Amino acid sequence: MEWVAIVTVLALLQCALFSFLVGRARVKYQIRAPAVAGHELFERSHRIHANTVEQLVLFLPALWLCGWYLEPRAAAVVGSLFLIGRQLYFNHYLEQPRDRGTGFLLGFLATLTLLLGALGGAISSLILH
Q1: Among 58, 52, 49, 51, which Cα is nearest to 112's?
Q2: C-alpha torsion sign, points 94, 97, 99, 101
Q3: What is the DSSP string of 73-86?
Q4: For the chain, what is the domain count?
Q5: Which residue ranges traverse the bilayer (predicted)?
């Protein structure tokens, strides 16, 4: 499960980086807390981070359950696709929000794959044991 743990830490570091970038944008565009509006680039950064946090709620349990019930290395590879998708989402959303779909879709499909793998693995485990 070490590979799953590594992908987990990378996902959390990526989220922390996005959080840091929100803070940096807050300072750069002089958006005082608790405001979450005031400059388009700040708002984009904020939405990217918020969406990433929302996606992590699904991704992290799916990653661990898939790794536990199926194959940790395979789960880690699929989990890496989530990280790549999130980075693409970040890059494209910041530049042009309408182009964020590819990154979102890659991350979503990775999470869905992990969820289905976890479900299939758990059902298989019930049947075989």
Answers
A1: 58
A2: positive
A3: HHHHHHHHHHHHHH
A4: 1
A5: 6-27, 106-128
